[in-house]
Amino acid sequence: MSNLLAYLEQQQSAHLEELQDFLKIPSISTAPEHKGDVLRCAEWVQNSMKSIGLENIQIFPTDGHPVVYGEHLHAGKDAPTVLFYGHYDVQPVDPLHLWTNKPFEPTVRDGKIYARGAVDDKGQVFMQLKSLEAHLKTSGKLPVNVKVLIEGEEEIGSVNLESFLRKHSSMLAADTVLISDTAMFADEVPSLCYGLRGLCYMEITVTGPNRDLHSGVFGGAVANPANALAKIIAQLTDEYGRITIPGFYDDVLPLTPEEREEYRRLPHDEAAYCKELNIPATDGEFGYGTLEKTSARPTLDVNGIWGGFMGEGAKTVLPGKASAKISMRLVPNQNTDDIAKKFAAYIERIAPPTVRVEVTNLHGGNPAITPTDSKGVRAALRAMERAFGKKPFLTREGGSIPIVLLFQTILNAPVVLMGMGLNTENLHSPDEHFTLKNFYRGIIASAFFYDELAK
Ligand code: BES
Ligand code: MN
Ligand code: MN
Question: For 191, phi and psi rounded to 5 degrees?
Fold first, then answer.
């Protein structure tokens, strides 16, 4: 083990340099013009798997972006098998002008590496690959059997991964799934995540007259789609911050008293939270704390809204169309398809008869709770404690990783969510970054995880 730590210490600058190469590839999965870059990124991952000594490495094409797979299965029949999952695709970079350095020109400042994908999820995938390499380079073997699955469509809902899992369920069979795509509770406050929210992402388009009209000539008699859309959206939540869609809460698993107690133990400072975000106060569902509201309660948010004149100054116009993108974060045991249906039915019911309203389902994913007493979670708790010198908290998080529930249902393998990111590291925003000490410590913690699991 001291051997492994010494090796990692000595490799630090090499690792940083190699990570930068990974971060230079603009693998934006949602952008058709980056399809070639996404493929190039899959090849980069493939080569990286080769160089660390994985075997049976393959790039599997899908109807969307490819999946990369590799394995190392020499720990023997009695040793457990871990499937590590991550994603090499990234979110778009806009608004570009708010980045300090260009998003695909990774730059180190104040002990952090800045680039799109730095923490979500390339940095964390790379961290895992390097921890496997550390074992292989220092002892020639791994303490457990390991399979590695890195996909290129997580940021667009993992649309093709479900059928891939079903088709390759024996290749992917494992005792534990390990994912590093979540955050720690705070810097120097290590945690393991045991719950993620799901997502139901809808778009509403309200159509009025067949063209934009002069708002003086027609305004008053012709319904304004932007006004109508605003009224529809206003009716989706009530004054207690509850979502008004009929049946929306039917399947919501309530927080247990033990969970609420654990939430209260977490070091949360409401004033500092507001100050860091520069907001006057927090909002949301009555009767719940901030941490509960952002991780264990469902929500509804407008992600974008447009229509009519959006340039500088004033143009008097009654727009012919207005649209909004609305996402709902779901919690166990809500189901994304069920919520999409309830949403569409409710919109249809409240839509004014003077306009036409169209609702489309863009994508989604189901929420998940992972068992907190699995062998994998217990090994991860011990590994984190060894690497950070503190007992990790168990937390739930507000983001979504659509495939988590399917790992548990299709592969019947409990998932361990061992993330080294921080929620303040601007994932999906300009100046995304990853704190390098957490990156290096993450490699160590992951290396310990494999040892602990073998015990
Ligand atoms: N890594 C995130 C999810 C995440 C972020 C979990 C922070 C916990 C803490 C993932 O890449 C992501 O962004 N997922 C999307 C879902 C997807 C369907 C677009 C999300 O949560 O918006
Ligand atoms: Mn991610
Ligand atoms: Mn993401």
Answer: -150, 160
